[in-house]
């Protein structure tokens, strides 16, 4: 201090230097921390891609599809699994379709065999008409008019299929096929 009581020294240099020093150090540390964080995130992502690429673990951020089942229950399925599930369902439905088709073919064969066995009993009645004198003249007359096919169709229906009950048997067979198909599908569901 001088005699006048004033300090002739300018403001101390140390506090300014200290403030710049600590601010700079804090800035450098913050910048280093941010760079380390970004590098860690980037390398972490590469590590996840490299190590979990062949893993069976589903990613935590995958999209989901909500499916409502027949009973009203809901089920969430990963969107990535939908094509695999669709393929499995398609294969299963093909197996069921083949089984139902095989069963229906067996029911149809046995029903038609029975129906036509009953109709074949009536064939001698048709042959009696066909080779009779009245049958001969009827065929000649209808052949001359050009409707022989209609006559033969009518006589087959009247002399073979109607007495055998073929129409009713085919209707019954159709009903049995429908109920057998429904039963087969219910049983395989």
Structure description:
This protein is mainly alpha-helical and 189 residues long. The chain is 74% helix and 5% strand. The protein has 6 helices and 2 strands. Strands 1-2 form a two-stranded antiparallel sheet. A hairpin with a 5-residue loop joins β1 (64-68) and β2 (74-78). α2 packs antiparallel against α6 (166-188). The longest helix is centred in the first third of the chain and has 39 residues, at 13-51. It is rod-shaped and about 165 Å long.
Helix/strand layout:
Elements: H1 13-51, E1 64-68, E2 74-78, H2 82-120, H3 123-131, H4 133-145, H5 148-164, H6 166-188
Antiparallel strand pairs: 1-2
Mean pLDDT: 81
Q: Could you give the distance between the termini?
A: 105 Å
Q: Could you tell me the radius of gyration in angstroms?
A: 47 Å
Strand order of the largest sheet: 1-2
Number of strands: 2
Along the chain, the helix and strand elements come as HEEHHHHH
Helix content: over 70%
Work out the strand percent. 5-15%
Q: Write down the overall geometry.
A: rod-shaped
Sheet/helix structural class: mainly alpha
> What's the main sheet like?
2 strands, antiparallel
Report low-confidence residues grouped into runs of 5 or more: none
Number of helices: 6
